[in-house]
Design a protein that fits this description.
single chain; alpha/beta; OB fold (Dihydrolipoamide Acetyltransferase, E2P); Rossmann fold; five-stranded mixed beta barrel
Length: 407
């Protein structure tokens, strides 16, 4: 008997299969080509159709957010290449292709190569806006990389001649389509950098199909533009055409004529701007001069200007007053210290042992060690003593010792 733990509902099984498919790396992003059949443009804006080949069918859906971006309307029998992912519609238990991009099969291979290279170079930072440089305002020389026989160079010359009649234009002729074109274009950009004789480079060609514009989608051209020290303008095809060169270049121009307008301002505009700046400069100088003259007049009318030594004289007088105050303070301090000294001297004189000697007292010391004799117990009969009086000293010998009856 089958265990209940192994029994799944239909919904559980469909969800399990959907999860398995969603985890598959190949099925999460792939390109599929085939022929459209059973095409239905739903009122919601979604496309429902089948993609088939000689042996198999694949259900497909393209939601309105992606379908609205298609430059063409799919039809039954149209061969296309689709980018999308495989998933399971759980309600019907049916896997299908969820289409995100679609291209007619004729240019599909090139479009896939374009997208792969674009993603690769973008990941390497070749498209970063932070590295793009500003174009020089008035270039001394302009380099052009394009065909010498096409209408592009004539359009550029005509536009530049109208805008600034003495433009220094340097043409590096190259093929702009075919197998040799990409190598020549890249070599031209690098050569301009080696010569360092232009301030900006225009890489240009007229409109055409994806195949005709393909040299400007080659990696060698993209890297030569990225490595250029000189700012590069990409002007390839028409306004709706985008190439890898457009993304790498410092500036993209929608057409070669627009590139000529971007690279060089009109002479009249420059002259008008210079006239305006000249007028502003003159007005600024006149205003500054007028202000400085007013300031000079105020300075001339000031006391400091008319009597430059007055401040010195005033300070000298103040110094004399301060000197007098200082001398008076020092004199008072000196008198105070003298009085204090006299008082201290009188006090010291009062306490001096000489005063006691003058009143008839004497000082007795031992001749032996000079110690002061304060008691009869400090001497013996026969000891030599020195007695200091007010007018001299006496040398004596102890003949007898008698104690005080009161002691």
């Amino acid at each position: 008997m089958m265990s209940a733990m192994n029994v799944l509902t239909v919904s559980q099984l469909n969800k399990y299969i959907k999860d398995l498919i969603s985890k598959d790396v190949v099925l999460s992003g792939l390109w599929v080509k085939g022929e459209i059949s059973n095409f239905k443009n739903h009122y919601s804006g979604h496309f429902y159709f089948t993609l088939k080949d000689e042996k198999s069918l694949l259900k497909c859906v393209m939601f309105r957010s992606n379908a609205s971006l298609l430059p063409f309307m799919p039809e039954n029998g149209m061969k296309v290449i689709i980018r999308g992912y495989i998933s399971v519609f759980e309600r019907d238990g049916q896997y299908q292709l969820y289409a995100e991009e679609m291209q007619p099969d004729g240019i599909g291979a090139l479009y896939i190569a374009f997208e792969k290279l674009k993603k690769k170079l973008e990941a390497e930072g070749l498209f970063d806006a932070s590295r793009k440089r500003r174009l020089p305002f008035l270039p001394g020389a302009i380099g052009v990389v394009t065909s010498s026989t096409g209408a592009v160079i004539r359009d550029i010359i005509n536009v530049l001649s109208r805008r600034f009649y003495n433009v220094n234009l340097k043409l590096y002729p190259v093929q702009v389509q075919g197998e040799q074109a990409a190598g020549q274009i890249a070599a031209a950009v690098r050569r301009f950098n080696e010569l360092d004789n232009v301030d900006v480079i225009i890489v240009a060609r007229g409109g055409g199909s994806l195949e005709e514009l393909w040299p400007f989608n080659e990696e060698i051209v993209a890297r030569s533009i990225y490595e250029s020290r000189i700012p590069v303008i990409s002007a390839v095809g028409h306004e709706t055409d985008f190439t890898i060169a457009d993304f790498v270049a410092d500036v993209r121009a929608p057409t070669p004529s627009a590139a000529a307008e971007l690279v060089m301002p009109e002479r009249a505009v420059v002259e008008n701007r210079l006239d305006g700046l000249r007028l502003r400069l003159r007005n600024a100088v006149m205003k500054k001069t007028s202000m400085e003259r007013l300031l000079l007049k105020r300075i001339e009318g000031s006391v400091a200007f008319r009597q430059p030594l007055n401040k010195i004289y005033q300070d000298r007088m103040l110094l004399d007053v301060q000197k007098k105050y200082m001398q008076k303070a020092l004199s008072a301090l000196n008198t105070e210290y003298r009085n204090r000294l006299s008082l201290l001297a009188a006090t010291l004189d009062t306490l001096s042992p000489l005063k006691s000697l003058a009143r008839g007292y004497s000082i007795t010391k031992s001749k032996k060690d000079g110690s002061l004799i304060k008691s009869i117990h400090a001497v013996s009969v026969g000891d030599r003593l020195e007695i200091s009086l007010t007018d001299g000293r006496l040398g004596c010998t102890v003949d007898s010792i008698e104690g005080d009856n009161n002691g």
